[in-house]
């Protein structure tokens, strides 16, 4: 029998979250973000579940796109970081990929290559995040160069928000204005409709003015809120990942006895400690502090001591009838990965994305 630690992925929950995104912005098209192995949820399985619902899938790079193609996915795939070498352009075109173009270097590669047919381009504008994207001052000239190139078919103008998870903050409206001002001359001088894309999950949920032609929901598809607190929309999200294991040992310890490496947790009362078969080697965050909640038979119990590679210890003194073999939920439907992440000094995005292949994944619904 193998170790009991496992990840259960509810594909129906992901489909439900996607429908919520589409209900919020019914006039927009949806680009489902399945990069980084679908935020740790399994890119192939998630993409197959979402493909009938969405117009496009998106990943970071060509390697991630080819995994989807090799597994039978047919919808267009957007490469969020574009191509890294000119040789990738022909492969991307042959595999029905569309490209984000975010630099002068990428522009030069695209204009020089000899493509068999034109490719769709998403021109990314840096409106203040200062990570990727061309400057607002370059938009008109680069758009004109792309329009004139035989290698380019359709063009979508896009940007990305740095602080959309700060509801009511001043920076997102500043970015929206910057984007609109940068592309307005193109809208004014182009006879065809100019396609735009702004909204990630946080913007889609909290900033109605960003819900334009294409939305790019990511973390919300997996049932995690991008915000620090619930709002009217995020309360409907359904967590798709349940990370769980079992109690494999139980012991009573006396006042003054310590638990785990470094003796960082010491009993202040006669205590009962349950050992659970999960650790940082399985993706549970080593930075999780004593007190981090774990669900055992639906009851909350606090982490006691340091997380080790394969095991954690939990104080179950106040829980009734805990026994070896009982299920322990590390995060899932009734214990958000975001809450656990807060205890570990990180974010839910990181917890779900970094899950190792060591842990068995089971897909349901």
The CATH architecture assignment of the largest domain turns out to be: Alpha-Beta Barrel
First and last CA, distance:
25 Å
How many individual domains? 2
What is the succession of H and E elements? EHEHHEHEHEHEHEHEHEEEEEEEEEHHE
What share of the residues lie within helices? 25-40%
Unreliable residue runs? none
CATH class of the largest domain: Alpha Beta
Instruction: Label the overall shape.
Output: elongated
CATH H-level superfamily of the largest domain? Alanine racemase
Secondary-structure class: alpha/beta
Task: Let me know the number of strands.
Answer: 18
Average pLDDT taken over every residue: 96
- Give the oligomer, counting copies of the same chain as homo and different chains as hetero: single chain
Assess the beta-strand content as a share of residues: 15-25%
Characterization of this structure:
The protein has eleven helices and 18 strands. The protein has helices spanning 11-24, 35-40, 43-50, 62-70, 87-94, 104-112, 139-148, 171-189, 201-206, 337-344, 348-353; strands spanning 6-10, 29-33, 56-59, 77-79, 97-101, 119-124, 152-158, 195-197, 214-215, 241-253, 258-259, 265-266, 271-276, 293-296, 299-302, 312-315, 327-331, 360-364. The strands form three sheets. Strands 1, 10, 13, 14, 15, 16, 17 and 18 form an eight-stranded mixed beta sheet that branches. An eight-stranded parallel beta sheet has the order 8-7-6-5-4-3-2-9. It is elongated. The relative contact order is 0.14.
């Amino acid at each position: 029998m193998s170790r009991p630690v496992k990840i259960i992925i509810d594909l129906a929950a992901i489909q439900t979250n996607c429908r919520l995104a589409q209900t919020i912005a019914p006039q927009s098209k949806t680009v489902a973000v399945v990069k980084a192995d679908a935020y740790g949820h399994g890119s192939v399985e998630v993409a197959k579940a979402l493909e009938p619902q969405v117009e496009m899938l998106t990943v970071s790079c060509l390697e991630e796109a080819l995994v989807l193609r090799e597994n039978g996915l047919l919808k267009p795939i957007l490469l969020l970081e574009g191509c890294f070498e000119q040789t990738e352009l022909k492969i991307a075109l042959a595999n029905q990929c569309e490209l984000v173009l975010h630099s002068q270097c990428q522009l030069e590669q695209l204009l020089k290559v000899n493509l068999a047919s034109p490719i769709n381009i998403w021109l990314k504008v840096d409106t203040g995040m200062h990570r990727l994207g061309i400057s607002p001052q370059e938009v008109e000239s680069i758009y004109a160069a792309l329009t004139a190139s035989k290698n380019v078919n359709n063009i979508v103008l896009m940007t990305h928000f740095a602080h959309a998870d700060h509801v009511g903050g001043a920076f997102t409206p500043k970015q929206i204005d910057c984007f609109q001002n940068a592309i307005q001359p193109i809208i004014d001088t182009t006879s065809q409709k100019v396609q735009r894309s702004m909204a990630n999950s946080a913007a889609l949920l909290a900033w109605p003015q960003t819900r334009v032609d294409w939305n790019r929901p990511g973390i919300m598809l997996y049932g995690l809120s991008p915000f620090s607190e619930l709002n009217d929309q995020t309360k409907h999200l359904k967590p798709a990942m349940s990370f769980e294991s079992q109690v494999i040992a139980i012991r009573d310890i006396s006042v003054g006895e310590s638990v785990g490496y470094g003796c960082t947790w010491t009993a202040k009362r006669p205590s009962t400690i349950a050992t659970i078969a999960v650790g940082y080697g399985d993706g549970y965050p080593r930075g999780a502090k004593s007190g981090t909640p774990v669900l055992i038979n639906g009851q909350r119990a606090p982490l006691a001591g340091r997380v080790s590679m394969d095991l954690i210890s939990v104080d179950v003194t106040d829980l009734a009838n805990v026994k070896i073999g009982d299920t322990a939920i590390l995060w899932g439907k009734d214990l958000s990965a975001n809450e656990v992440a807060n205890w570990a000094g990180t974010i839910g995005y990181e917890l779900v994305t970094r899950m190792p292949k060591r842990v068995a994944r089971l897909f349901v619904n």
